[in-house]
Amino acid sequence: MSESKDIQKVTETITGPHQVNPYGPNPGDFLSNVNNFQLIDSTLREGEQFANAFFDTEKKIEIAKALDDFGVDYIELTSPVASEQSRKDCEAICKLGLKAKILTHIRCHMDDARVAVETGVDGVDVVIGTSKFLRQYSHGKDMNYIAKSAVEVIEFVKSKGIEIRFSSEDSFRSDLVDLLNIYKTVDKIGVNRVGIADTVGCANPRQVYELIRTLKSVVSCDIECHFHNDTGCAIANAYCALEGGARLIDVSVLGIGERNGITPLGGLMARMIVAAPEYVKSKYKLHKIRDIENLVAEAVEVNIPFNNPITGFCAFTHKAGIHAKAILANPSTYEILDPHDFGMKRYIHFANRLTGWNAIKSRVDQLNLNLTDDQVKEVTAKIKKMGDIRPLNIDDVDSIIKDFHTGLATPAIKPVDLTTEEPAAKKTKYSK
Ligand SMILES: CC(=O)SCCNC(=O)CCNC(=O)[C@H](O)C(C)(C)COP(=O)(O)OP(=O)(O)OC[C@H]1O[C@@H](n2cnc3c(N)ncnc32)[C@H](O)[C@@H]1OP(=O)(O)O
Ligand SMILES: O=C(O)CCC(=O)C(=O)O
Ligand SMILES: [Zn+2]
């Protein structure tokens, strides 16, 4: 066999023979849940642990309704034992009659469980640290005690007809045998889900994939995952968890949570729409992401980061001339995400010295001016010259183009085409 045929064979075993989306799930991977995942939004639990967060009842209700409208499967709320108002808020959200199931999050203790089951929640997420750090310095209990109290809490919550999830906190720094034993125990007594939590954000995607695969061989219930972002792996870890067979991912709006937070809802949607476009588009109202992020950003008094997936101000802005030319010909050249899927627009940032004549020609067309290609190249050179001296904005470029046009011997005005799409309306330092 020739060398190129060999290579083709190898690539086909990785991506499949005629896969339309090479970044989609591997069809041969029968355990993958990339095409069949669920979201547990924890903005109102983990997110409340973000340094800046304070949500009053009204704001919690507004956020819960927005998440429900977006289509998250579950909404996780702060423990009702955290404070009197936390308990009342939990009860109030349970009474809203949302489509999303309402969960609350408690310690692995009967005192907490007794309060939780009275709030009206659909499910209880119970957690206890299993790493030696947490066993020694947080609750001080050994694995036998943990297993005993887990069984007691799970059986009690189940007896009330409420969903129950058991999670080991700090799973990736826990002993694997301890982990598998406790998960096996809780699975046997009918827990609805088990949770893996990368509490300190230490895990990498390969470790996640391996742990989920191993856990899949031990339990028959669904697996939920919770990833902190301390080392920047929260989205990648969530994706690999789904590839390994986890079913549910914890997210929060903008990723808010303890320290620098967890897997962000918007960022995960960006990853998942590439891998499972039909599933994601049919299940979630993606055009609502911007409004939800603005709602939460305002509530916790932060700005949306400039490089945020989807909604960062430059997420769909193309600048360099080589990029702009290709984008104008076919947006897929430099975009893996289609901004329109999220109710956003793309923008060609041509007011700078990295621009090229193709980008300037598109602006000339938008201004309804008639220039030959050679004339556009000439005016592009002038724009670049000015761009070497100082930052430019659209007005600068428009005046250079218009002055150039006026200076031509017989300027011809093209008929106005009102269907021309304006560039995206994100206000930047360099745009109007
Ligand atoms: C990784 C995570 O994010 S887990 C979720 C974190 N969420 C929260 O902490 C919710 C908000 N917390 C609170 O309001 C309070 O911490 C409360 C009400 C839960 C407890 O308050 P306090 O009784 O004053 O205890 P404190 O917060 O100082 O310490 C935690 C207590 O919980 C115990 N504990 C910690 N984790 C667990 C657990 N998973 N299961 C059972 N007990 C636990 C500790 O042993 C400690 O009890 P102790 O003081 O008797 O030793
Ligand atoms: O309950 C869980 O699975 C996660 C708890 C948590 O927030 C964490 O471990 O970081
Ligand atoms: Zn967490």
From TrEMBL:
It holds the Pfam family HMGL-like. It comes from the Eukaryota. Its cofactor is Mg(2+); Mn(2+). One of its GO terms (biological process) is lysine biosynthetic process via aminoadipic acid. Residues 37-290 form the Pyruvate carboxyltransferase domain. Keywords: Amino-acid biosynthesis, Lysine biosynthesis, Magnesium, Manganese, Metal-binding, Transferase. InterPro entries: 2-IPM_HCS-like, AIPM/Hcit_synth_CS, Aldolase_TIM, DRE_TIM_HCS_fun_bact, Homocitrate_synth, LeuA/HCS_post-cat, PYR_CT. GO terms for molecular function: homocitrate synthase activity; metal ion binding. SUPFAM superfamilies: Aldolase (SSF51569). Pathway: Amino-acid biosynthesis; L-lysine biosynthesis via AAA pathway; L-alpha-aminoadipate from 2-oxoglutarate: step 1/5. It catalyses: acetyl-CoA + 2-oxoglutarate + H2O = (2R)-homocitrate + CoA + H(+). GO terms for cellular component: mitochondrion. PROSITE patterns: AIPM_HOMOCIT_SYNTH_1, AIPM_HOMOCIT_SYNTH_2, PYR_CT. Its EC number is 2.3.3.14. Catalyzes the aldol-type condensation of 2-oxoglutarate with acetyl-CoA to yield homocitrate. Carries out the first step of the alpha-aminoadipate (AAA) lysine biosynthesis pathway. PANTHER family: HOMOCITRATE SYNTHASE, CYTOSOLIC ISOZYME-RELATED, HOMOCITRATE SYNTHASE-RELATED. This is homocitrate synthase. The lineage of its organism: Eukaryota, Fungi, Dikarya, Ascomycota, Saccharomycotina.
